[in-house]
Amino acid sequence: MTADDPQSVGFLGLGAMGLPMANRIAKAGFALIAVDISEAQVLLATKLGITASADKNDLDGCEVIIIMVATPAQLMDCASIAGLDEGVTAVVMSTVGPAAVKEFAKVVAQRGVRVVDSPVSGGVVGAESGSLSLFVSGDPETQRVVTPVLETMGQIFECGDEPGMGQAMKIVNQHLATSNLALAAEALGLAKSMGLDGEKVLERVSSGAGSSWMLRDRGPRMLISAENRPVLTHLSILAKDASLVAGVAQEYGYQAPILAAARQRWQSAMERGLGQADDSSIYDVMS
Prior knowledge:
The protein folds into 2 domains: 9-163, 3-Layer(aba) Sandwich (Rossmann fold), CATH 3.40.50; 168-285, N-(1-d-carboxylethyl)-l-norvaline Dehydrogenase, domain 2 (Orthogonal Bundle), CATH 1.10.1040.10. Strands 3-2-1-4-5-6 form a 6-stranded parallel beta sheet, with helices on both faces. A 3-stranded mixed beta sheet has the order 7-8-9. The protein is globular and about 60 Å long. The chain has helices spanning 18-27, 39-47, 72-78, 98-109, 123-129, 140-150, 165-193, 198-205, 213-222, 235-251, 257-271; strands at residues 9-12, 32-35, 51-53, 64-67, 89-92, 114-117, 120-121, 132-137, 154-160. The model has no long low-confidence stretch (mean pLDDT 95). By secondary structure, the chain is of the alpha/beta class. The termini are far apart.
């Protein structure tokens, strides 16, 4: 951190990803105030040594405000918070789609707020280790201002000079992620139906041509019984993303039949009440 870096950073949204991301920023030495409507998440942040609050008004006075919420509607709700004033830079790190970020940027620009679009990929493990992939777009000079903060969380991949272009890149990523994870679950389900040992299957195919990051990362959790499976990323997030990608594809008139099949599985998992379970629990509707 240098004298030219932002001196005050706000972070809105301390969920499974947001909390470790905020922790990385705080540990890098930035003056951070983190906010979440959940008192439980605020308490967890406080235990990590992060200054935290349940009041969005506490973001007032921050030079940079990072937004890590779940849906386009929640993002638009953030457009009216007190801290988004003239000269402030808002960094949208949520996965909400290009249209939502463009609309948000249009609304807050009327108050003199600049927007950098920076959705992330890498899961909770990447958030904790500071190894996320950040798909960044926006005005180059504004990007430069927030780069020191973003670098505490992972590697920056520049995607363009307008908000929404980072989201477009993330849509491609989530098209692959939601489909690959469903396919990994289906493949392990097939292995089970053939009487194969799941652990041996993972050991043998994880380095083969048919492997994927999702198979290697989520596969081991799929093999854990549902009652003992740790929850790292809620299944509802991937289900939401599958629908988001489908909506963007429809908006552009693009047919995505493989995604459509995967989305049906995500919807089935939600209907079975697995929304708050780990996203690897999609295996439970395949096997």
